[in-house]
Amino acid sequence: MLTPPIGILGGTFDPIHIGHLRPAIEAREALGLAEVRLLPNHIPPHRANPFCSSEQRLAMVRLAAAENPGFVVDERELKRDTPSWTIDTLIELQRDLPDTPLCFLMGMDSLLGLPSWHRWRELLDHAHLVVSTRPGWQPDYPAPIAELLARHQTREVADLHRLRHGRIWLADNLPIELSATGLRALLAAGRDPRYLLPAPVADYIRQHGLYQPSVGSSAEEGFEPTP
């Protein structure tokens, strides 16, 4: 018998903010997820190195998880010295949790770019995909994604509980227009980040002097685009 599904949310988290957390909270509540695991990347595939060290980003993710019941931190990607390919993580998690359905949480932009991901056709062999969408927005799906949705989309929450993997759930979420790039620019300008990220994370950033103008620049926060 299967145990309740868990959510998986990976990212650079540089820094972690409400654009990451709010959709995950909504998914946990709507789908009855037993927990949401936050997996900070060590080496994000095909994007610039993060502003902050792995240790600093892990500290911020831990602070954010402590603010949210049902959220836990999984450090496995930080312990690798190879790029943080999602397929590798899902295979590991499925091996560790053979009786637990995995729900990989992503945004619509990531779904639209899925054909560029490493071994993307194998993802549904190991997890369900839970995609945050904007209410009322009907994207123009590329042919491979339209075909994927035709075969795998479900509107039944029960499917995510009774099957280990293989379904796609499109979730209507509150629209939050916030990126880590924009948040870093706001912090570098000395503006108040209140309500854009958890208060303990904002305190950590302030105490450690992170994201100051002298640090440099980094790529947009996201999941795993590949050439």
Automatic annotation (TrEMBL):
What EC number(s) does the entry state?
A: 2.7.7.18
Keyword Transferase on entry? yes
Q: Report keywords, A-Z.
A: ATP-binding, NAD, Nucleotide-binding, Nucleotidyltransferase, Pyridine nucleotide biosynthesis, Transferase
Q: Name one GO molecular function term.
A: ATP binding
Instruction: Return one Gene Ontology term, BP aspect.
Output: NAD+ biosynthetic process
**Pathway where it operates:** Cofactor biosynthesis; NAD(+) biosynthesis; deamido-NAD(+) from nicotinate D-ribonucleotide: step 1/1
Task: Report which reactions are catalysed by this protein.
Answer: nicotinate beta-D-ribonucleotide + ATP + H(+) = deamido-NAD(+) + diphosphate
Q: Please state what the protein is called.
A: Probable nicotinate-nucleotide adenylyltransferase
Organism, by scientific name, is: Aeromonas taiwanensis
